[in-house]
Amino acid sequence: MRIGPIQLASPFCQAGLAGYSDRAMRTVARRRGCAYAVTEAMLDVIMLNGGEGLRRSIDISDEDHPVAGQIMGSEPETMARAAQIMAGAGYDVIDLNFACPVKKIKNKARGGHMLLDVDRGVSVLKAVRDALPPAVPTTISLRRGFDDSPESTDRFYQLLESAWAEGYSAVRVHGRTVEQKYLGRAHWPFLREVKQRYPDKTILGSGDVFTPQDAVRMLEETGVDVVWIARGAIGNPWIFRQAQTLLQIARSPAGLGPHEAEQHLTPPTIHEQREALAEHFAIAMQIHGESLAGRRMRKMGIKYSRFHPESARVKSDFIAVHSLRDWTGVLSKWYAGEGPGVWPAADAADEVNAGADLQTCEAGA
In whole angstroms, what separates CA 44 from the centre of its chain? Predict the structure, then answer.
């Protein structure tokens, strides 16, 4: 559980999610057991333009460490300059996003399309590493291939070998191809293959981690060092501590089975939900201002509502939120009392799946 010189306290991290994983989401998760977090993918050309919007987007706080700043782009020179900006802003790690299934821009590869243009990808890897001080760790995010062809797998390993040769500290591997986007199942056996091939390297695994049970199962089935939790963390900052609890029980001398171990988990209470919701909106308002925070937090509230006994009605009220007054009204109406929470319905992961993927370019899933 190391990324270069950085020792992680647990093998579960919050992934980068466009439109979600700002400092507010990361901080709320930190306070509930998240040991490592990653920003949403920042486009290099936008970062180089600067401005107040950039400052807000890359803002971090003292409790938001260790944290990786994730960048995405096409050109070695601009990617290197963007990496320097992130390192100068205090990010502990710089992650290159070669995973997101975005379209090409002006026929130039970026994100997952680097798996079709290995020479460009290698040039970016080298330029970024050369631009940063040796003490700043760099990592790379990849999908298992552009498609299911053997040639695509070969290109994956070419990029990965180049990353190791340039001194990259870790790789995050997503179990879907670029062509899959977020459809179908992530292929976890490929994660196991990568870890077995590089037993002494730090491998982060991602894909289809929606519950603490999924997170622990990925560790056990694939052997990856760290589980990258993306959509499963939206509206569920408790997932990190829950996964750590399950892992400790599973690896304890008592050797409890999965079903017995799950009996030690309880969903967040109404009080715990209220605390997280209040914190999240307050920090979002500090970063974005009330109007933008209202728009961003509306979709967050919808995801949080899954843990409430009256989830459908609470969700409906969160959909109508536009301001702090609206947000406070929902908390006063539904979260003023005490009582147990509930586990989300079995199809809740599908709802997160649809809501997060069709409108955003996520770093993981």
Answer: 19
For residues 111 and 86, the answer to whether their CB atoms sit within 8 Å is no
Residues near 82 by Cβ (< 8 Å), separated by ≥ 6? 42, 44, 47, 48, 71, 73
- CA 251: distance to chain centroid? 25
The Cα 155–Cα 176 span in angstroms is: 15
How many residues are present in the chain?
A: 365
The fold of the 270-342 domain, in CATH, is 1.10.1200
Distance between CA atoms of 97 and 119, rounded to whole angstroms? 16
Q: Which residue has the tokens 């939900």?
A: 273
Token reading at 167: 């001194």
The domain locations on the chain are: 2-265, 270-342
pLDDT above 50 (res 342): yes
Q: pLDDT tens digits for 12-48?
A: 999 998 889 899 999 999 999 999 999 999 999 988 9
Angle (CA) 20-25-29 rounded to 5° is: 135
CATH architecture of the domain formed by 2-265: Alpha-Beta Barrel (3.20)
d(CA 352, CA 235): 10
Which residues neighbour 88 within 8 Å (Cβ) at sequence distance 6 or greater? Answer: none
Distance (Å, whole) CA 159 – CA 175: 16
User: What percent of the chain is modeled with pLDDT above 90?
Assistant: 75
**Which residues does residue 25 pair with via DSSP β-bridges, in sequence order?**
none
CB atoms within 10 A of CB 102: 18
- For 254, which DSSP code? T
What's the rounded Cα separation, in Å, for the pair 227 and 84?
27
What whole-number distance in Å separates Cα of residue 108 and Cα of residue 123? Answer: 13
- 141 versus 362: which is more confidently predicted? 141
Say whether 6 sits in a helix, a strand or coil. Answer: strand
Asked whether this chain's domains 2-265 and 270-342 adopt the same fold, the reply is no
